[in-house]
Design a protein that fits this description.
By secondary structure, the protein is of the alpha/beta class. It contains ten helices and 15 strands. The longest helix is centred in the last third of the chain and has 21 residues.
């Protein structure tokens, strides 16, 4: 009950009784009318109104085992996970850093938005997960990703800067994504994650170009891993500024926690409660470098 009590101090209407709608991302790098093909198989599709290539779906069979899936015509990905890459908004020809890239959900989406033009440096410290990333890139027709086994805290070793940086940080996750989540988590784990997240975000802010952007996201609902991480960086790196997010859902970031007032601009971030969005919990903040 510890975590539930915390959530109810932030959202009085919080409940774990939620229905999460599955979604997919149509892969525009492959030239095929996959929507028609799926609908002919009896799959019901509904466009996600705030995404370019996202669809909610209902199917009487696994969409992870169809010929269309194996051909890379679509990727199974939650709507808020897709929103992350769209808000970073990479442009064709840019140099992008994905700091925690495997298994490649957002990496391949970034490549799709860039139309395979430019380059994405995709880092992960887990070799086995990098293999999954490489397999997904091949299946989806992604050709502009360079994958490295590397601890992203030390990305400055590359001695280069990036137009945009994505840090979808390692985190505690949330109860929608894992059975028995509440029984497995402790606040000590949350605080340990926050220490790593702060180090990663500080590294991201160091290597992004002046005028560039850093998108920080987690699928955690814990303020220590979300707003408090942003507050920590804003107070130490005054060249970073939080940008408003033009999205039609989500709640403003909280500006006070644990008896401490947080940076006022954190209201520009967005936290996404599952019971209010019908999607897996998420937190998203977009920073720019002056």
């Amino acid at each position: 009950m510890e975590f539930i009590d915390r959530y109810r101090t932030l959202a009085e209407d919080f409940t774990t009784d939620v229905v999460i709608r599955p979604a997919l991302r149509v892969n525009s790098l492959r030239d095929a009318a996959v929507q028609d093909r799926l609908q002919k198989r009896g799959v019901r599709l509904e466009k996600v109104p705030y995404l370019t290539h996202g669809y909610f779906y209902e199917a009487g069979f696994s969409l992870g085992a169809t010929p269309e899936y194996l051909l890379g015509l679509y990727y199974l990905q939650g709507p808020l996970s897709q929103l992350v890459s769209e808000l970073l908004a990479p442009k064709p020809g840019e140099t992008i850093l994905d700091m925690a890239a495997a298994p490649g959900s957002k990496t391949t989406h970034l490549a799709q938005l860039m139309r395979n033009e430019g380059v994405i440096f995709a880092l992960d410290s887990n070799a086995a997960r990098l293999e999954a990333l490489q397999n997904n890139c091949e299946r989806l027709g992604v050709r502009n990703v360079l994958a490295f086994k590397k601890d992203a805290r030390f990305v400055a070793d590359f001695d280069m800067t990036f137009d945009r940086v994505l840090l979808d940080a390692p985190c505690s996750g949330n109860f929608c994504a894992e059975d028995g989540w509440f029984a497995k988590r402790r606040l000590a784990d949350v605080n340990a994650n926050a220490r790593l997240q702060r180090a990663l975000l500080r590294a991201a802010c160091t290597v992004v170009k002046t005028g560039g952007r850093v998108l920080y996201s987690t699928c955690s609902l814990e303020p220590e891993e979300d707003e408090c991480v942003i507050d920590w960086v804003l107070r130490r790196q005054p060249e970073m500024r939080l940008e408003p997010l033009a999205v039609p859902l989500g709640d403003p970031g909280i500006t006070a926690w644990g008896g401490k007032q947080l940076h006022e601009s954190i209201r520009h971030a967005r936290r996404f409660w599952p019971h209010r969005t019908g999607a897996e919990g998420f937190f998203i903040a977009l920073l720019s470098k002056r």
